[in-house]
Structure formats: structure tokens, C-alpha cells
């Protein structure tokens, strides 16, 4: 790993927005690949933060600072990830499921989809099944993306799929699911159309489904 990626990781862990944006800018200037800055820098930093939380080395407020710092870095990176794309891939409704406030990964997926030309309607976090389904109907969305980061909130995906069926809308929209505890096996089990492990692959799967 290059020193520049180490700087980004360290800055995310420190949770100060300034150093993260400086480190991301420096990486771009040094010609690092934007996707590598995302995966090997910013996301790796957030993964390290998660591990430190697990070990009891840091606490929830530290995680929130790190999350904010990461989002600042993302803002600098986004124009480079989204470069030169035409906007015609269709409409996606995206959100984090009911009872779940984790939105960093979901935001990343939304940003990447937007960069890939999708019209993204981001409903935020703690989104009730009714709100997902209403938004799909209202926007005529061809794709619904749901994120869950807690094992306890994953069943909200099933409830949303059931509501789509109950309203006769299941055949009209492709459903893409993701989030750290969500697997391809789980996606298959609940009858989703697609799953992706990260934001880069979410774009690939979304394009296949669109
Ligand atoms: C940041 C964080 C928080 C922040 C969230 C801030 C925010 N604005 O999001 C705060 C501090 C608020 C928080 C709170 C809690 N958290 Co928390 N949190 C994390 C942490 C450290 C990082 C998550 C993250 O942002 N990762 C970085 C992003 C980029 O990765 P990602 O989210 O996985 O997203 C990628 C993929 O999953 C995928 N993806 C994500 N969504 C989607 C959607 C689609 C459609 C697709 C295709 C792909 C996709 O692409 C993304 C980008 O590459 C994780 C630990 C970890 N290592 O995951 C714990 C973690 C998720 N939290 C956990 C817990 C337990 C909690 C709390 C219950 C703690 C508590 N006791 O209060 C609360 C829950 C509150 C609630 N009701 O939701 C547990 C969950 C355990 C479990 N399996 O159920 C974890 C795993 C920590 C742990 N090891 O215990 N948390």
C-alpha cells in the first residue's frame, strides 16, 4: 500500500475533515486511480474504524466523526468517479431500511449510481416499506435499492418485497439489496433480483438489471 493511501486511512481514523480532503486531493494530484482512493483509502479507513470499535479502542462518537470526515473526502472524489457519463440509465429509489440509521454505504452506492447515469431518489435512512413502495410508484422507478447494516433490520427488506407484491408492483421494479450483513444467498432467499458487495459492483449489477 502506498504512503498516500496510508495518509487517507489515518485521516479517516482521526475523524478531522480537513486532513481527509487534503489527503484525497494529494492522491488525485499524484495520479492515483479514483476507485483505488475510494476502496483502498476511504473505505479501508472506515473498515479500520469498524475494527477499532469492535476492539473497544474507540467509541461511537469517534465513529461518527470518522464517518463525517469520510463523506467530506468523498465529496472531493466524486467528480472524478462520475467523470464523463451520460444521464439516461433510468430511475433508482434507494434508502436504508426501517430501524437502521447506517447511511454511509448507501450514500456511496447512490453517488456511484448517480455518477453512472441513473436518476437517484435517495429516501435517506430508517425508511418504512410503505415509503419505499410509494416512492417507486410515484417516480416510476425501474430499480429499488435497499441497504441494511444490522442483522435485526434485514427482515425489513422482506416486508418491502411483500408490500410490492401486495400492491401488484413486484414485476415492475427490479430490487437490489446490499449492506455488510447481506449476502447473495440472503438476496436469493428473499427473492431480490440482485445483490452487490460494494458500490462499484452495485453499478455493474444495476446496469445489468436496468
Ligand atoms: C459507522 C457505523 C455506525 C454509525 C453510522 C453512521 C452513519 N451515518 O452511517 C453509528 C455510530 C450511528 C452506528 C450505530 C449503530 N451501529 Co454501527 N457501525 C458502523 C460501522 C463502524 C461502519 C459502517 C460503514 O459505514 N462502513 C463503511 C461503508 C462504506 O461500508 P458499508 O456500509 O458496508 O457499505 C458498502 C457495502 O455494504 C455495500 N452496500 C451498502 N448498502 C448497499 C445497498 C445496496 C443496494 C447495495 C447493492 C450495496 C450496498 O456498498 C457499500 C459501499 O461499498 C460498522 C462496522 C463495519 N465494519 O461495518 C458498524 C456496525 C454496522 N454497527 C453495528 C451496531 C450494532 C450498531 C448499533 C446497534 C450500536 C449501538 N449499540 O447503538 C447502532 C445502530 C443504530 C441503528 N438503529 O441503526 C454492528 C452491526 C452488527 C450486526 N451485524 O447487526 C456493526 C457491524 C459493528 C459491530 N461489529 O458490532 N454505527
Protein model, in words:
- The chain is α/β, with parallel strands linked by helices and 210 residues long.
- It has two domains: 79 residues, Methyltransferase, Methionine Synthase (B12-binding Domains), Chain A, domain 1, CATH 1.10.1240.10; 120 residues, 3-Layer(aba) Sandwich (Rossmann fold), CATH 3.40.50.280.
- The chain is 58% helix and 11% strand.
- Strands 2-1-3-4-5 form a five-stranded parallel sheet, with helices on both faces.
- Helix 1 packs across helix 3 and helix 4 runs parallel beside helix 5.
- The longest helix has 22 residues.
- The radius of gyration is 17 Å and the shape is globular.
- The relative contact order is 0.12.
- The mean pLDDT is 92.
- Cobalamin binds next to helix 3, helix 4, helix 5, strand 3 and strand 4.
Oligomer: single chain
The global form is globular
Radius of gyration: 17 Å
Order of helices and strands: HHHHEHEHEHEHEH
Whole-number tally of structural domains: 2
The CATH homologous superfamily of the largest domain is named: Cobalamin-binding domain
Topology:
Blueprint: H1 3-14, H2 17-29, H3 34-54, H4 60-81, E1 90-96, H5 104-115, E2 118-122, H6 129-139, E3 143-147, H7 155-166, E4 174-178, H8 184-190, E5 194-195, H9 199-209
Parallel strand pairs: 1-2, 1-3, 3-4, 4-5
Cobalamin is lined by residues 43, 46-47, 49-50, 53-54, 60, 63-64, 67, 99-106, 108-109, 145-147, 149-151, 176-181, 196, 198-199, 202.
